[in-house]
Amino acid sequence: MKLRIKSNTLRFRLTKSDVSQFREKGFIEDKTEFPGSVFCYALKTVHGSDEITAEYKDNCMTVYMPENWVHDWPEARVGFDHEMPLGNGKSLYILIEKDFKCLESTREDQSDNFENPKEHC
């Protein structure tokens, strides 16, 4: 699982095995280690909700996704997004999507990424 952060935008990109694990367990997380601390980021399903939400607590950022959205993903769609109100006219934009193979060469291992739909135009 990859995480991209810019200002008030979070973008999670999941490989095939990430999506499979998320569908099966309802939870997936990864960590980045720093000297003296660890930053955790996670996706978790939540029952009874109809929107994506997020929280940051104890050095872990958790994004909650409605449980019923996960069952037919990724067959039915590329991903999900939501603009979460923060108050004072601000919001947090959250995007959760498939991680596609790059069209140009890269050093990154892409063997577990989804086929890029633009590859077969």
Characterize the structure shown:
This protein is mainly beta. The chain has a single domain (2-102), classed as Gyrase A, domain 2, CATH 3.30.1360. The chain is built from two helices and eight strands. It has helices at 16-25, 67-70; strands at 2-6, 9-14, 27-34, 37-46, 53-57, 60-66, 79-87, 90-98. The chain has a four-stranded mixed β-sheet. The protein has a four-stranded mixed β-sheet with strand order 3-4-6-5. Strand 1 and strand 2 form a beta hairpin. The radius of gyration is 15 Å and the shape is globular. The mean pLDDT is 85.
Number of helices: 2
Class inferred from helices and paired strands: mainly beta
Percent of residues in helices: 10-25%
Strand content: over 45%
User: Unreliable stretches, pLDDT < 50, 5 or more residues?
Assistant: none
The CATH top-level class label = Alpha Beta
How large is the radius of gyration? 15 Å
Largest sheet: 4 strands, mixed
User: So, CATH architecture?
Assistant: 2-Layer Sandwich
Determine the mean pLDDT.
Answer: 85
Overall structural domain count: 1
N-to-C series of helices and strands? EEHEEEEHEE
Number of strands: 8
Numbering strands along the chain, what is their spatial order in the largest sheet? 1-2-8-7
Relevant terms:
121 residues, mainly beta, 4-stranded mixed sheet, 12% helix, globular
Provide a short characterization of the protein structure.
The chain has 121 residues and is mainly β. It has two helices and eight strands; from the N terminus they run E-E-H-E-E-E-E-H-E-E.
